[in-house]
Amino acid sequence: MEINLEEHTLFGKVSDIWSVGFRSKNGLVEFIKNVVMNMDMCDGENKNGYGVMLQDVSNLHVLVSNQDFPFESLSESQNKNINLTASEDKCFVLGYIWTSTNIKRGNASETDFHFIEYIDSRISGLNIAKYMIDLYGDCNEACLLPYNIAYGADKYWKKYFEDEHDIKTKAELKQLIVDCELNSSDIKWNSLFDILE
Predict the structure, then answer these.
(1) In the chain, how many domains are there?
(2) Are 161 and 145 a contacting pair, CB within 8 Å?
(3) Contact (Cβ atoms closer than 8 angstroms) between residue 196 and residue 158
(4) Residue 104 pLDDT > 70, yes or no?
(5) Which of 29, 67, 76, 145 has its CA 20 to 30 A from that of 23?
(6) Which of 39, 30, 14, 2 is nearest to 125 (CA)?
(7) Are residues 165 and 75 located together in one domain of the fold?
């Protein structure tokens, strides 16, 4: 079954979402405990924790499930990195984007670029990351690009750049960097360059 994310979720900054009247903040507490503040270096599910996002937690953009989110329709094969017993009201952080405020661009152009420090979805198979990127771009009138493409995420970003920007080669990616007036020091895309022809 395909889940309509627009119908069953809310997207925005942590500070805004939990001020609109969610009955419980248990889903936010679960996210902070199991992702943001997870200090277990051996935890394979902890991709971006160790407290690095805590300084900016109220500005994280999150996709939160509504109370009617159909968790029961998720298949057994979908990877779920959420403790679904942590909150009775089902308002969980399904995905998050942390954008960098420290990256400066060269010359200004008509398009405003924001850079992703971290992005992750906590349920596989729902295209949550792509959905959040689109929503972020619409809300902020900006083009959202990765700052650092880590090994392991390179295949995702290869497909993303191919689907969204029709980029299939190193030369085309270099041209995008020139067209967007990005400084090479602004981005760390070596792992993506390594897998392009």
Answers:
(1) 2
(2) no
(3) yes
(4) no
(5) 76
(6) 2
(7) no
